[in-house]
UniProtKB/TrEMBL annotation:
GO terms for molecular function: ATP binding. The keyword Membrane applies. This is ATP-binding cassette subfamily B protein. The chain crosses the membrane at residues 61-81, 113-133, 190-211, 217-237, 303-323. Residues 1-41 are annotated as: Disordered. Residues 9-22, 31-41 have a biased composition (Basic and acidic residues). InterPro entries: AAA+_ATPase, ABC1_TM_dom, ABC1_TM_sf, ABC_transporter-like_ATP-bd, ABC_transporter-like_CS, P-loop_NTPase, Type_1_exporter. Residues 66-362 form the ABC transmembrane type-1 domain. The lineage of its organism: Bacteria, Bacillati, Actinomycetota, Actinomycetes, Micromonosporales. It holds the Pfam family ABC_membrane. It is a multi-pass membrane protein. Keywords: ATP-binding, Membrane, Nucleotide-binding, Transmembrane, Transmembrane helix. It is found in: Cell membrane. Residues 396-619 form the ABC transporter domain.
Length: 619
């Protein structure tokens, strides 16, 4: 294995420069080939698979869901009791049938007034109980549902943060946001609303059917005759509703990304006067979403219409036959009223089940999307039993490394270089040559598609990912700050840092003076992405971050490209202080910036070559 040594000694010039190898075809690995085939799997998993997955997700909450179910089930006996006062009033107060034996035994015989009062009190008591039950169910449903949702969102967020950079490159942030914010709620809806409603509906249906059969079995048979139609409608609309709902979600998350993009680049939009254009893009995307939603609503309305008309036909049939039965004296008028109430209550669960079957399709489409995100495998993985790495010395070797973002066009090809610990390497090359890509492989934002990279003689893939990334401090061209205080932003590299350590890092980065001049000093809030500070100020804060991190390897990606010459000189001075004793890769367009480096390499056409003294990059 011959490597280009970059050890700052200038010796062994014989081996310097990229090894020109025999031309080798570029063979993408599996992960890259999959990446090329498109973004995250938009799978349409089978219902059985999805339901099983859902059951697995809900298992930890089963006791609480069971409690909710039991509470919901109490609604059935209350629903049965509700029409009873009316029947007693019609049959025993307004007509001369004897009251039920329970009432007859406690009330004075023949007193209609006492019976009426008793029935009224009974009526209020049932209503009160029903309300209390509703209240308790709503409270339990909300508490358990919110807990479940928070847990799922937390898992999604944790997972999405650990997904590879290539995933985020491909998907953008809005789709993930949509899945966490909106799609995740589907699981809550299914667990807290659809499942309990279904089970309660089945129970109510069974009980109502039994009671109605006891009063008049012929009427219950007539009432039930519509069930096959309802089942058929649910089956027929199931696929359509799911497909349409899936499409709505996709379009909505796409439309949201327009808003997100336009607002995060609001300065550019305003500077170029492109508000109108962005608005049109927004309207176009939402327009597509609007029609998809309209189509979905029309489908659910058609479905509701079928359900509504079918149950109305059933009710009318029971009414017709019921009135005939009262006329022939087979049942009393009170019993008909009771049966009619039960029939409407019988249809309520049937309607609930049918409607829930419709909305369930929307929830399942969302759950599918949330689970797909959760199941997304990161391209960059940690091996089982990976090595810990407390602190590296900082020797880095690129051994025949190739890389392509899309699996087709290689950005880097057969790169072999050796960097001794503590060497300062300047990286130059034309725009788009692959400089950033080269350093992005170091902390495993991406893995090479060919070859390997060694840190202290060990393949990067052997190390624990968190430990490996801890070895690098990065200062980017566009420093990214969070909407927090200056001190919090510096301490982002080491949350346990003391105030003194933060101040020392800021001093080392030459940032202390300007921070002290801010309205609230180190407690000044910097605004979203640090917009309240100038580019140079942001850069110094990110430099202070790097000082505080005190990592053995430094990656500086054109850190001074957006500041004036004076600021650049000040930042460079701090930068060279930071580089002392650390292996450093510093990317720069201006060669003068790299004067203090031990070695310079040039990236061109995917190859890496050592620059001879006086040779300038084609920038
Ligand atoms: N996330 C990405 N997905 C796909 N292609 C990418 C991605 N990032 C960079 N590229 C491509 O890889 C090539 C190298 O990009 P890279 O950012 O490494 O260049 P660079 O030398 O750092 O450029 P600059 O000096 O302009 O920052 C370019 O052709 C670019 O289009």
């Amino acid at each position: 294995m011959t490597h280009t040594p970059l050890d700052g000694t200038g010796k062994d010039d014989r081996d310097l420069g990229t090894r020109v190898r025999d031309a080798q075809p570029f063979v993408p690995d599996r992960a890259t080939a999959e990446r090329r085939e498109g973004p995250v799997r938009e799978t349409t998993v089978s219902d059985r698979h999805l339901v099983r997955r859902l059951a697995r997700e809900l298992r930890p909450y089963w006791l609480r869901i069971l409690g909710l179910l039991l509470l919901s089930m109490l609604a059935t006996p209350l629903a049965l009791l509700t029409p009873l006062p009316l029947k007693i009033v019609i049959d025993s107060v307004l007509s001369s049938h004897p009251p039920p034996s329970v009432l007859a035994s406690i009330l004075p015989t023949g007193s209609d007034a006492a019976l009426l009062i008793a029935v009224t009190v009974f009526f209020v008591a049932i209503a009160l109980l029903a309300q209390l039950l509703d209240l308790a169910t709503a409270v339990l449903r909300t508490v358990v549902g919110e807990r479940l949702l928070l847990d799922l969102r937390t898992r999604l967020f944790r997972h999405v943060q650990r997904l590879s950079v290539s995933y985020h490159d491909l998907r953008g942030t809005t789709d993930s946001t949509y899945r966490i914010q909106y799609d995740a709620t589907a699981t809550q809806q299914i667990a807290m609303d659809t499942i309990p409603s279904f089970i309660t509906a089945v129970l109510t249906l069974g009980t109502m059917l039994y009671v109605t059969t006891q009063i008049d079995w012929q009427l219950s048979v007539v009432a039930l005759a519509i069930s096959p139609v309802l089942l058929l409608a649910s089956w027929r609309y199931r696929r359509q509703l799911r497909t349409q709902s899936r499409q709505v979600k996709k379009l909505e998350s796409g439309a949201m990304s327009v808003v997100q993009e336009a607002l995060s680049a609001v300065r550019v939009v305003q500077a170029f006067g492109r508000e109108e254009h962005e608005e049109q893009r927004f309207v176009r995307r939402f327009h597509e979403g609007m029609w998809a939603r309209i189509r979905y609503t029309l489908a659910t309305s058609r479905y509701s219409l079928v359900i509504g008309v079918t149950t109305a036909v059933g009710t009318a049939a029971v009414l017709y036959i019921g009135v005939r039965s009262v006329q022939t004296g087979r049942i009393t008028l009170g019993s008909l009223v009771l049966v009619m109430t039960y029939v409407s209550q019988l249809y309520a669960p049937l309607k609930t089940m049918s409607r829930k079957a419709g909305s369930l399709q929307g929830y399942l489409a969302s759950a599918e999307r949330a689970f797909a995100l959760l199941d997304e495998e990161p391209d960059v993985k940690e091996r089982p039993g990976a090595r810990p790495l407390p602190r590296a010395r900082g020797e880095i070797v690129f051994d025949d490394v190739s890389f392509a973002y899309d699996g087709e066009r290689p950005v880097l090809q057969d790169v072999s270089i050796r960097v001794k610990a503590g060497t300062r390497v300047g990286v130059v090359g034309a725009t788009g040559a692959g400089k950033t890509t080269l350093v992005s492989l170091l902390n495993r934002f991406y893995d090479p598609t060919g070859g390997r990279i060694l840190l202290d003689g060990v393949d990067l893939r052997e190390y624990r990912l968190a430990d490996l990334r801890n070895q690098f401090a990065i200062v980017l061209q566009e420093p990214l700050l969070f909407a927090a205080s200056v001190a919090e932003n510096i301490a982002y590299a080491r949350p346990d840092a003391s105030r003194e350590q933060i101040l020392a890092a800021a001093r080392a980065a030459g940032a202390h003076d300007f921070i002290a001049g801010l309205p609230d000093g180190y407690d000044t809030r910097v605004g979203e992405r640090g917009t309240r500070l100038s580019g140079g100020e942001r850069q110094r804060i990110s430099l202070a971050r790097a000082f505080l991190k005190d990592a053995p390897v430094l990656i500086l990606d054109e850190p001074t490209s957006s500041v004036d010459l004076n600021t650049e000189a000040a930042i460079m001075e701090a930068m060279y202080r930071l580089m002392e004793g650390r292996t450093t890769f510093m990317i720069a367009h201006r060669l003068s910036t790299l004067d203090g480096c031990d070695e310079r390499i040039e990236v061109a056409s995917g190859r890496v070559t050592r620059m001879s003294e006086g040779v300038h990059p084609h920038a």
